[in-house]
């Protein structure tokens, strides 16, 4: 009986909030009428996009309320309302999400006040179920109906607020367009970095090497010792140029990934990081299938950037790297027990990681409360 009462109380709380929101929706009719009149007379046409944005916020609050009850998230799929007034009006009217919200709002005027049905069940349920459960040891009959009413209200809200396939497709296209733009920007920045490294590093070394060899050739007949010194300098310049070329190659695609795979490359990276790094691997056997090269490269750079941040900013002396194979992808997690408080604007490198991972349709999440710990997690979809 106690569990039944507790569940019915929680359901009543949900219906109470839903009823309060329904009452607010009745008041929202005034806003709709003002917007309709203003749009018809043209003078108040600017109200239409603002009203649609307000409706989106209300529908978003209802989605969160329903998610809290059902435990299943309801996705949102809206087009951004921005630009000049004509563009904002066009987007507000043509967005499929606007029709979805209006349809939900119209239905919510009817079913949003289920609280008036649930409240009379309480006195009846306390008497009937109190006697049935307390004296007759039977199952509750009346109070569970309050939970069913809350489930019904949440089910209708879920069905009405779920975006249409057209809206989901439009949102997906916008997301892919933004991801593609970020990938192109990241690719351009990477090419500029490689060009700069080659121009300022290896190329300058090779020019100096050529000059020293030329001077050595001129001095060889009259001053062999000076020529030998110049050749020694040229050899040192050649070794430095080779080292810088190797660094550039590693920035493009680390050769160790090809030779040892992701797990071996990450372990080598951890060994050379200067930190005490624990590498945990799940589902990636040495003789098992490997992820695509692009996925391995992105995962490797996520770990490299994260460990660099740990060494530079976190104040921690140890970190943990976890690599796990998922059914449809690869998950990489880097955690440290530093002082936390990392943000994108403070050089966490999350923006660069996000662009690299988003180009493969993956996601990056960072949790870094003040005082730690900091956890960076990347998920990369792939087919094994």
Summarize the structure in words.
The chain is elongated, with a radius of gyration of 32 Å. The chain starts with a helix and ends with a strand. Helix content is 67%, strand content 10%. β1 (276-282), α11 (293-314) and β2 form a beta-alpha-beta unit. Strands 1-2-3-5-4 form a 5-stranded mixed beta sheet. It has helices at 2-40, 47-70, 85-94, 96-111, 115-118, 121-134, 144-161, 165-219, 224-252, 255-271, 293-314, 350-358; strands at 276-282, 318-326, 329-336, 363-367, 374-381. It is an alpha+beta fold. It has 12 helices and 5 strands.
Q: What kind of assembly state do the chains in view correspond to?
A: single chain
Portion of residues in beta strands equals 5-15%
User: Topology as H/E string?
Assistant: HHHHHHHHHHEHEEHEE
Alpha carbon gap, first and last residue: 50 Å
Q: Counting H and I runs of at least 4 residues, what is the number of helices?
A: 12
Give the overall silhouette: elongated
SSE map:
Blueprint lengths: L1 H39 L6 H24 L14 H10 L1 H16 L3 H4 L2 H14 L9 H18 L3 H55 L4 H29 L2 H17 L4 E7 L10 H22 L3 E9 L2 E8 L13 H9 L4 E5 L6 E8 L3
Parallel strand pairs: 1-2
Antiparallel strand pairs: 2-3, 3-5, 4-5
Helix pairs in contact: 1-2, 1-7, 2-3, 2-4, 2-7, 4-7, 8-9, 8-12, 10-11
Which terms would index this structure?
single chain; 384 residues; alpha+beta; five-stranded mixed beta sheet; 5 strands; 10% strand
Short description:
The chain is an alpha+beta fold and 384 residues long. It has helices at residues 2-40, 47-70, 85-94, 96-111, 115-118, 121-134, 144-161, 165-219, 224-252, 255-271, 293-314, 350-358; strands at residues 276-282, 318-326, 329-336, 363-367, 374-381.
